[in-house]
Amino acid sequence: MATKPYVIIVGTDYSSHGYRAVRAAAREAAKHSYAKLYVVHVVPSAEPDHHLPPIAFTGFGSKLGSDLHGDSFAKLDEHVAAALSNLPLPSELTVETMVLQGEPADELMDLGWKLRANLTVVGTRGRQYSSSWALGSVAETVVRQATSPVLVIGPRVQLTPEIQAKVALS
User: Fold this and answer.
1) Which of 6, 35, 50, 67 is the most exposed place for a label (fewest CB within 10 A)?
2) How many Å apart are CA 156 and CA 137, to the nearest integer?
3) What whole-number distance in Å separates Cα of residue 85 and Cα of residue 117?
């Protein structure tokens, strides 16, 4: 009898926040004996990339040869390889990279629903323009509408010595 894998979807925009989200998702995946990690980059619909299929898969590290969108996959594979390079990950962990086209939050949530994801991971810059923009539009939309738990990886912050002391005591 086959066991359903623990499915984690992580979105990345190639930023440092996306990099940290990929690393956090991989660490979460490593906690499970049978996990599948889907690393997704969404090309916004507004970008002039009309030839990209609605969904495109590639195994992590695979070569696409003369594919018109090999650059998209190659960039994503490089990003994922860098993020996972020094993490102690189990050999059983399956990592797939995907390039989708559309609205990032909608595509992540739709994929999560289709794959019956156990967890969705997104990074955020933690902008604080107003209380409604504190997470960033993609992270906030995913948190509000996802059907699975969501892990939001915020920006790194520099703690003052006073706060570091309080954290050490707690």
Assistant:
1) 50
2) 19
3) 24
CATH code where residue 62 lies:
3.40.50.620
Tell me, yes or no, whether 108 lies in a domain. Answer: yes
Pairwise CA distance, residues 143 & 157, whole Å: 21
Residue 160: pLDDT over 80: no
**Are 152 and 143 in contact, with CB atoms under 8 Å apart?**
yes
Q: Which amino acid is at 57?
A: F
Whether 122 and 152 have beta carbons less than 8 Å apart is answered as: yes
d(CA 153, CA 138): 12
Number of domains in the chain: 1
Separation CA 84–CA 89 (nearest Å): 8
- Cβ–Cβ under 8 Å, residues 120 and 143: no
On whether the CB atoms of residues 28 and 119 are closer than 8 A, the answer is yes
Instruction: Quick: pLDDT tens for 130-142.
Output: 444 455 688 888 9
Q: How confident is the model at residue 109 (pLDDT cuts 50, 70, 90)?
A: very high
Indicate the DSSP class of residue 25: H
